Amino acid sequence: MKPTLRAVAEAVGVSRSTVSNAYSRPDQLSTELRRRILDAAREMGYPGPDPTARSLRRGYVGAIGVLFTSRLSYAFTDPFATQFLTGVAQAAERHGSSLLLVPLPADAAGARKAVENAAVDGFCVYCGGDEEGEIVDAIRSRGLPFVTTSARPRAEDRWVGIDERAAARSVAEHLTGLGHRRVALLADRVLPDAAPGPVRVGDLADVPHPTTRERLAGFADAFAAVGVDWSQLTILSATDNSRPAGAAAVGAPDSLPEPITAVLACADVLALGALDTLREADRHLAVTGFDDIAEAAPVGLTTVRQPGVQKGRRAAELLLDPPVDTDAHQILLPTTLVVRTSAGPAPRS
Amino acid sequence: MKPTLRAVAEAVGVSRSTVSNAYSRPDQLSTELRRRILDAAREMGYPGPDPTARSLRRGYVGAIGVLFTSRLSYAFTDPFATQFLTGVAQAAERHGSSLLLVPLPADAAGARKAVENAAVDGFCVYCGGDEEGEIVDAIRSRGLPFVTTSARPRAEDRWVGIDERAAARSVAEHLTGLGHRRVALLADRVLPDAAPGPVRVGDLADVPHPTTRERLAGFADAFAAVGVDWSQLTILSATDNSRPAGAAAVGAPDSLPEPITAVLACADVLALGALDTLREADRHLAVTGFDDIAEAAPVGLTTVRQPGVQKGRRAAELLLDPPVDTDAHQILLPTTLVVRTSAGPAPRS
DNA sequence: TTGAAAGCGTTACCAG
DNA sequence: CTGGTAACGCTTTCAA
Hints:
- Chains A, B: InterPro entries: HTH_LacI, LacI/GalR-like_sensor, Lambda_DNA-bd_dom_sf, Peripla_BP_I.
- The structure is a homodimer.
- By secondary structure, the first copy, chain A, is of the alpha/beta class.
- Chain A has three domains: about 5-55, 434 Repressor (Amino-terminal Domain); about 65-160 and about 310-335, 3-Layer(aba) Sandwich (Rossmann fold), CATH 3.40.50.2300; about 165-305, Response regulator (Rossmann fold).
- The first copy, chain A, contains 13 helices and 13 strands.
- Chain A has helices spanning about 5-10, 15-25, 30-45, 50-60, 75, 80-95, 110-115, 130-140, 165-175, 210-225, 245-250, 270-280, 310-320; strands at about 65-70, 100-105, 125, 145-150, 160, 185-190, 195-200, 235-240, 260-265, 285-290, 305, 330-335, 335-340.
- In chain A, helix 2 (about 15-25) crosses helix 3 (about 30-45).
- The mean pLDDT of chain A is about 95.
- Chains A and B meet through helix 4, helix 5, helix 6, strand 2 and helix 7 of A and helix 4, helix 5, helix 6, strand 2 and helix 7 of B.
- Strand 2 of chain A pairs antiparallel with strand 2 (about 100-105) of chain B.
- Chain A binds a DNA duplex through helix 2 and helix 4.
């Protein structure tokens, strides 16, 4: 039986408040008495105030939650997610908070429940898909602060992110500038249950994931500007945001519905996978990525850089000490086109 | 003002227990009543039972803590730590638990406090240094279960790990087999405040970190077996367990106290750093690592593989559903010597 | 500087 | 199946 604060109080012969003060407000009692209490506590094996009870009473937990749409183990496997988490961890650490990593079940009800059960002071919503609405709703009804990082939210909510569409457009323009006209766009789960490979997407609005939607739209913008419209673009869907899934999605490049000269991926990991497949097939198409993860540079991947660590850090800061000025509640981070060698000029046809 | 369970009860005209049951024990009331309660709750904006209050009452949190000795952001940066976390996350996820990542301040008192304040059901102690004693002590006095992963603990404690010494010895024997006799051992913080580079270590017992101590001992075993004793080995200390720190520790290879033909690192990241420096200096020494992280294969690093993901997974499992048989509370994982190209035969002198 | 009283929001037990 | 009562372990006024 663990001793409680009460037991210590009785043993020392003081009131519970005094013992509590000995731990939490040393200035409220004499050094000598405090010493006596702490000593007695140690002797009795009292481990200090129970964190749960303390949280309940104080209304403050000392931890922030990070919500992952995909499997939790993903968090440590995906390079961009890792960058983001590093940033969050930096800010949390400085603030003295812990990080609660919350895996979200795929079903909306389960996700809601996960949010409702997390003992935290606020949430970083990392990359929600279409279920983000449900999640945000659950957080809001708990009355906790949160920061989102994908599609731009309501004006009153906190957000840190990039201009997805413009960023995507910038790589795509690089490709149109190089003469590419027949291209494939590669993204994770373009449509809900798509098999790996080409899919028909009648309308961009059908794409569930907002970030993917924005990036595809950005790509499309650039091609539209040179007279290539949406229906002429090949869309490749991966089953996952991972290198193998990217490789699988490209499949047999020669059997694609349309001949292409370039692949524009919505993430570096996908682009890397595409490169794997193409190298295997000995095809030399132009490939571009998105994010600029560490693995991109060594293989010369042309991509758009977004500051992942900073994104995480600023998200956590927004949560932990929000700027008084509400105008500063939404932070737009810069992106840069990083031109390397993976995307050369289109072959003259 | 967030509504509470009590408010819902009053609104519906039932007792608090009934509302509570509606959430936590659906079988305790009629479907119809439950529906009415849940509907009313939704309407009032009641987000469901407060997680903190629930934890206090139930005596169960639904989260396990992972304790990091080094900076928290390390967790996502260090490849081996990442593997470990992935494993922990897998197990936690399956069990429906969240992961609380707890950064430990460098000072013992702070670390103790961090442990005492974490609202969790148990701890995975990842890689404690010499302060592990203090930490384990704090956990124990809270009466929570824990699993450690470094030096083998008391018989009654849970542990998952490898035979550090034998594993280290196996790489070292590979090197002695190749004829190496004058070598340097490279490790993270061999002595408490060592500057990067060579240090004198009179006695292995002076090395604070138990894992490092074991690995160095294993290396030494192999060399002792061929007549090279401890005092003839050069010890290189890094300031950190990272690639740059490894690079810095090797410093100017030609200015080392003794000429060497090989560097045995206690971690792949350090070995990688050493390789960076040596390549820079155009020196072609043999280099070996430890862990077999993903980056090891591409550069042909000879190393010892330990199953990182599995280590994390089994640690978490040991915590989440401990085997009834206490004999199974300590799990020894296998290691394998992985011979690649980074360590060739010693030059004939 | 100390202590008494009043919760924080739940859930468990047990009687009805 | 329902509801009253008593905690869970602590912190925080507020008055002494």
